[in-house]
Design goal:
The protein is of the alpha/beta class and 363 residues long. It has helices at 5-13, 56-69, 84-87, 107-117, 152-168, 203-214, 231-234, 245-252, 267-278, 291-303, 308-311, 327-342, 349-352, and strands spanning 18-27, 37-41, 46-48, 73-78, 94-101, 122-127, 136-139, 145-147, 172-178, 181-190, 195-199, 218-222, 239-241, 258-262, 284-287, 314-315. The protein starts with a helix and ends in an 11-residue tail after the last helix.
């Protein structure tokens, strides 16, 4: 949603109406995840994607029809659909897509957009079926709410479920039984922008900032050594801080969207930074160094009060095993591992005791 808002704003400035299409269910495999979005203007322009290209043309036509009627619609595309030959998913799966006009006078939708703009997590619950189809309820992490779904049982179900979804930062489909029958809800959870905190203004970090920014991460490089942390070397980072990293990370109140990478090989810099990160719910914590280096690091962290469960959160040796040697390759391996963890596709190597060989040269 975040990347679509500037385009949606421009369309509105041009006095065009806007519809939003969202993937609300996936059967089998699909090219894009639950919650993927595409915006369509009343002039037929499109931005974003719900299927990687398979059904976009059909969704644009349906979005224009929704704008004309002023009503939302739940659509299904896939090999079982009668349109399979022309718009079926090439991957053999099926998706349901919710298409709705974006009305700025709707307080729940407006609040949802405002939260995303501000980089705040937010959950928008939408009734997809039932007598109140189209009703929306916005929930914020502090429990504040805007809107209603038309049945107190629906609202209660959303309030009960959203704390867990804010913890894992993912969308979910939910079925709730009411007097009118089962009602399908979609809980669209938008996380804050991903942030990558890089401890150590070393050569690997320069390439890591480049890869991270390409993937939409807000990057902060921290190093108390002014000779390393220079604007000439890190002018492409979003923030460059010549400070002790444990002070920065503690004050930052890292959330579940934060990723922390420790790269200096200097225990007096790395270890306090790791302690600060391990005391937070940060999604990813990685440390550069070979296995023997990491074993010594674990002993030092235990002396600083960290327990086995906390230490098992550290990804070390850092990065996916791609045979990386050059700094740019190591940065690529690190970023690939971060993406895998954020997408729920990789267990912690330390915790699962998977043997890696690529880091033996990273002493």
């Amino acid at each position: 949603m975040r990347e679509l808002l500037p385009i949606i704003d421009r369309w509105r400035e041009e006095e065009k109406r806007v519809a939003l299409a969202t993937v609300v269910r996936i059967y089998g495999s699909a090219p894009l995840p639950l919650g993927a979005k595409m915006a369509v203007s009343s002039a037929g322009e499109m931005a974003g994607s719900v299927s990687g290209g398979c059904v976009e043309g059909a969704v644009v036509q349906e979005a224009l029809a929704c704008l004309a009627a002023g009503q939302p619609k739940l659509l299904t595309y896939g090999i079982a659909d009668e349109l399979a030959q022309s718009v079926g998913l090439a991957c053999g799966g099926a998706i349901e897509v919710w298409v709705t006009p974006l009305a700025r006078h709707n307080r729940a939708y407006r609040g949802f957009e405002d939260a995303v703009r501000a980089g705040q997590p937010a959950a928008l619950a939408t009734a997809l079926t039932g007598p109140g189809a189209g009703a929306a309820l916005l929930i914020l992490p502090d429990g504040a709410a805007v809107g209603a779904l038309g049945d107190v049982r629906l609202d209660d179900a959303v309030f009960a479920r959203t704390p867990d979804l804010f913890t894992v930062l993912r969308a979910e489909r939910l079925t709730v039984t009411t007097d009118a029958g089962p009602v399908e809800l979609f809980l669209d959870v938008q996380p804050p922008p991903p942030r990558l905190w890089i401890v150590g203004a070393v050569h690997i970090a320069t390439a890591l900032v480049t890869f991270a920014r390409t993937l939409g991460f807000y990057t902060t490089v921290i190093d108390p050594r002014a000779a390393f942390a220079t604007p000439e070397r890190f002018g492409h980072a979003d923030a460059l801080l010549v400070r002790w990293p444990q002070e920065v990370l503690t004050a930052a109140n890292l959330d579940a969207a934060a990723c922390v990478v420790v790269l200096t090989h200097d225990a007096k810099i790395d270890n306090p930074a790791l302690v600060a990160a391990l005391r937070s719910p940060a999604r990813y914590i990685g440390a550069l160094g070979a296995r023997r280096t990491h074993a010594k690091r674990l002993d030092a962290l235990k002396e600083l009060g960290m327990d086995d469960a906390q230490l098992a959160r550290i990804h070390a040796p850092i990065g996916l095993d791609i045979g990386a040697r050059r700094p740019e390759e190591i940065a690529l391996a690190i970023m690939a591992e971060i993406v895998a963890v954020v997408n729920g596709r990789k267990e912690n190597f330390y915790n699962s005791q998977i043997t890696l060989h690529h880091s033996s040269s990273r002493s």
